[in-house]
Design goal:
single chain, 349 residues, alpha+beta, three-stranded antiparallel β-sheet
Length: 349
């Protein structure tokens, strides 16, 4: 029997104020998620196919439309385009090999992205994203970050501040740890200073706030690691500002770059325009933000660095624009990560 709108209104009027508030929040959340996800899917399709259709399996351009499939967005059935490659004969969609591929709850992604911008833990996010477990959200998080990690950073311009910071090597989540006792809530290193227990993270940033943050390995930074990590983004026209570690000076000499170095004692903090205050401030914000996770498994650290880098680029602002932008950019790059590949991955020291 069909339910009339007038009957629904009468039942709503019987609710107490608290129940009406919960209903209002539910309806706003459901309608916003449906609209935002639908718009994001359309934008993903247009941006992925801006130079014509390409097969994600064999990269062929001989692609034709091949009917439509039905997916649920915010409880509504939406028909989306399917394609077929004439070269390898496989069929695919705009979401094949993306973070949203085979996701059954597309409408939940808006709330999930909101939780990521707020920096919530997986368990806190699972409380907010009703009907999705924290295990599934772990997979969603790292699929999305694996895609965002592929966003190309512009070449550095002018003055480039570059400095390293260190995180304790962590095997968080590992059930059987060999060689030491498990730590609680991050723990501390056995040795003082920089050792193989410490993971080196390089942060390089120009004055336009183009930023690269990446793990280099364990222990002290080496010149070869620098070139591999950021060499393609630098030229002899750049001016480096670093701390006093000798690897930076050796690297700058080899690249033919001018370099200004500052000792860690802080007695000389600036030389005119040249300083490392921006990158040191970035280190401070990064470490403060990452503390909320009570230690991060080192094999996932690069993903967390990408996560924070994205948040910095949007200035940690949570709104419809930043949520949609994160969903769209996170589904423009191919990923092949599965739950098992993520779980069994190893950090390359």
């Amino acid at each position: 029997m069909a339910v009339r709108a007038t009957d629904i209104i009468k039942e709503i009027q019987k609710l107490n104020p608290a129940e009406k508030q919960r209903l209002r929040a539910f309806l706003i959340d459901a309608l916003t998620a449906s609209s935002s996800t639908g718009n994001a899917l359309q934008e993903i399709s247009e941006r992925k196919n801006k130079q014509g259709y390409t097969c994600p399996h064999c990269q062929s351009k001989h692609v034709v439309r091949f009917g439509k499939y039905t997916t649920l967005v915010g409880g509504d059935e939406v028909k989306k385009q399917r394609y077929r490659c004439k070269s390898c004969t496989t069929t695919f969609t705009d979401l094949t090999n993306t973070a949203l591929y085979r996701t059954r709850r597309l409408n939940k992604w808006v709330k999930f992205i909101e939780c990521m911008i707020d920096g919530y833990s997986l368990r806190k996010s699972a409380e907010m994203v009703k009907g999705v477990t924290h295990v599934t959200l772990f997979y969603w998080r790292h699929k999305l970050l694996s895609a965002l990690k592929q966003i190309e950073i512009a070449d550095f311009q002018g003055i480039v501040e570059m400095d390293e910071t260190y995180f304790l090597y962590s095997e968080k989540g590992q059930k059987k740890i060999v060689g030491r006792k498990p730590r609680k809530r991050g723990g501390t290193a056995k040795k003082r200073g920089i050792s193989k227990e410490q993971v080196c993270v390089l942060v390089a940033r120009d004055r336009d706030k183009n930023t690269i943050s990446t793990t280099l390995g364990v222990g002290r930074i080496k010149k070869e690691q620098l070139d591999k990590a950021i060499g393609q983004k630098l030229s002899s026209q750049n001016v480096l500002c670093t701390d006093s570690w000798r690897a930076f000076r050796t690297y700058a000499t080899d690249k033919g770059m001018t370099i200004y170095q500052f000792k860690s004692d802080g007695k000389v903090r600036t030389k005119g325009l040249y300083h490392i205050q921006n990158v040191n401030s970035y280190h401070s914000r990064l470490k403060g933000w990452i503390q909320r996770f009570n230690g991060v498994a080192t094999k996932y650290l690069d993903n967390y660095l990408t996560w924070f880098q994205v948040l910095e680029s949007i200035q940690h602002q949570l709104n419809e624009v930043t949520v949609n932008d994160m969903i769209i950019k996170g589904n423009l790059f191919p990923i092949i990560e599965t739950y098992d590949k993520l779980r069994l991955s190893k950090f390359k020291k």
